[in-house]
Amino acid sequence: MDRTPKIRTYSSCRPLFVEVDQIYHLACPASPIFYKYNSVKTIKTNVIGTLNMLGLAKRLRARILFTSTSEVYGDPLEHPQKETYWGNVNPIGVRSCYDEGKRMAETLMFDYYRQYGIEIRIARIFNTYGQRMNIDDGRVGSNFIAQAIRNEPLTVQLPGTQTRSVCYVSDLVDGLNQLMEGTDAGPINLGNPGEFTMKELAKAVQELINPEVQISEVENTPDDPPQRKPDITKAKEVLGWEPKVNLHEGIPLMEDDFRQRLGVPRT
């Protein structure tokens, strides 16, 4: 479960090569199952780990990109969410190790920018899915696809009307690269503004992968936001970026990858 132990230790952040001009700081579990498993280590990764990476960037005079999250908007009172929105986060909730940790990391990034002149880039990533994702990741995209392949009921958390906007991984990677190579520090939302309810997403997976599979409802987890949709106006204007892969194109690609790793061929 502990996937990012090294950046919490400063000695582990010493570069193997002296010439480093760009640092991509993506460390931190993003699935609620994983980041709530050890909440203290999660927030340490976000805070102490980010401090260590910023120290490395300062020493090397390297540009650093930090992957923040749409979770900084919490249970948003603004929809869709713009980068200027400060959010509505529960600072003592079960998800706060992640969302408040990311908010603190953004603060540290800008403090190092203002105090030391470090070149920073901040991406606020919305829900992402795609190939090579952990099959038992616990997030809705991987859950539904794995369940459909295994012929298990698709478990929709109540009430099922909560929305998410899911972006295919290749689009996200393009956005991160463009942000790093650009001139804007951010934060910049990176996500697909196509918005689906959990019931709609389950039905799309059912239709595309396994029409015979059932859809069942289960209890929700605490602090699950009812709406999440990025406003990507800034990404379009500043980076010239917008997602290209739609849901009905991305799901089959992820299905093929999951089937290969699960050893379950198409019938």
UniProtKB/TrEMBL annotation:
The keyword Cytoplasm appears for this protein: no
Record's keyword annotation contains NAD: yes
One Pfam family here: GDP_Man_Dehyd
EC number(s) given by UniProt: 4.1.1.35
Pathway: Nucleotide-sugar biosynthesis; UDP-alpha-D-xylose biosynthesis; UDP-alpha-D-xylose from UDP-alpha-D-glucuronate: step 1/1
Keyword annotations: Decarboxylase, Lyase, NAD
Cofactor(s) required, per the database record: NAD(+)
InterPro entries found in the cross-reference section: NAD(P)-bd_dom, NAD(P)-bd_dom_sf, UXS-like
Coiled-coil ranges per UniProt: none
Positions of the NAD(P)-binding domain: 18-253
Protein purpose: Catalyzes the NAD-dependent decarboxylation of UDP-glucuronic acid to UDP-xylose. Necessary for the biosynthesis of the core tetrasaccharide in glycosaminoglycan biosynthesis.
Record-stated family: Belongs to the NAD(P)-dependent epimerase/dehydratase family. UDP-glucuronic acid decarboxylase subfamily.
Name of the featured protein: UDP-glucuronate decarboxylase
Native species: Gossypium hirsutum
Gene name per UniProt: LOC107961473
